[in-house]
Design brief:
Elements: E1 15-18, H1 22-32, E2 34-40, E3 47-52, E4 55-60, H2 66-78, E5 84-93, E6 103-110, H3 117-120, H4 131-143, E7 148-155, H5 164-172, E8 177-179, H6 182-192, E9 195-205, H7 214-219, H8 222-232
Parallel strand pairs: 1-4, 1-5, 5-9, 6-7, 7-8
Antiparallel strand pairs: 2-3, 3-4, 5-8, 6-9
Helix pairs in contact: 2-6, 4-8
The structure holds 1-O-phosphono-alpha-D-ribofuranose and uracil.
Uracil is lined by residues 90-92, 156, 159, 178-180, 203-204.
Binding site for phosphate: 20, 24, 43, 87-90
Binding site for a purine D-ribonucleoside: 4, 179-181, 203-204
Active site: 204
């Protein structure tokens, strides 16, 4: 057990799917895993472990934002031996061609700062996805017939953003979508030498103003779960 995860040693699989929403973790585990059992509920941050096609898999919430994700990812890797972590998150589209419910697979994530910024000092470290996972996820998404976009995203610290000029600059530079965790996930994966990827589903659109309700964000993003599982064991 750690400060934030109540699981016993061995309760967490080497492969972890990591949504921000703990209730999405519960839904994904109950929907896609065989024999899921709850392994964490400390602070309401739900984690479940089961199997997928015979492979042990944990689905665990990260909470919202990079400081929260940093706590869980540090403990999952250092204390439980996680080797592959795939974020399954929602995101806001920043390009017209990216539509609601499309998948976005993040090659890299820009940010103003991350919890690791203090450690890097003047260095602008470039967080990047694991290439093998990325290729496998793109292949799985295309094979499953999903609309998928691959490229850079923005990991923001503010959901209610006031920097229209900054968003405009990112749109001009092709940033596909905004969310709040991937940059730090990729940095921690690099630090510990494990594999990481973010597979995202578009839940709202910064240009058109469309959005999906919270129930859809919790329980209807199964395509990204299927892509993440296929990529993890490709
Ligand atoms: O749906 P999740 O995975 O939580 O991801 C997105 O949704 C939250 C904001 O509503 C942030 O965590 C953001 O990154
Ligand atoms: O961080 C996020 C997540 C979904 N949609 C957004 O606009 N921002």
């Amino acid at each position: 057990m750690t400060i934030h995860i109540g699981a016993e040693p061995g309760d967490i699989a080497e492969t972890v799917l990591l949504p921000g929403d703990p209730r999405r973790a519960e839904w994904a585990a109950r929907t896609f895993l065989e024999a899921p059992r709850k392994v964490n509920a400390v602070r309401g941050m739900l984690g479940y472990t089961g199997t997928w096609n015979g492979h042990p898999v944990t689905v665990h919430g990260s909470g919202m934002g990079m400081p929260s994700l940093s706590i869980y990812v540090n403990e999952l890797i250092r204390d439980y031996g996680a080797k592959t972590i795939i974020r399954i998150g929602s995101a806001g589209a920043m390009q017209e061609r990216v539509a609601i419910r499309d998948l976005v697979i993040a090659m890299t994530a820009s940010s103003l700062a991350t919890p690791s910024s203090g450690m890097f000092r003047e260095l602008n470290f470039a967080p990047c996805a694991d290439f093998g996972l990325l290729g496998a996820a793109v292949g799985a998404a295309e094979a499953q017939g999903h609309r998928v976009h691959v490229g850079g995203i923005y990991s923001s610290d503010t959901f209610y953003d006031e920097r229209a000029d900054l968003n405009e600059a990112m749109v001009r530079h092709g940033v596909l979508a905004v969310e709040m965790e991937t940059a730090e996930l990729y940095i921690l994966a690099a630090r510990y030498g494990v594999r990481a990827l973010s597979v995202l589903t578009i839940s709202d659109h910064l240009i058109t103003g469309e959005d999906l309700p919270s129930a859809d964000r919790e329980r209807s993003f199964g395509e990204m779960v299927e892509v993440a599982l296929a990529a993890a064991f490709a």
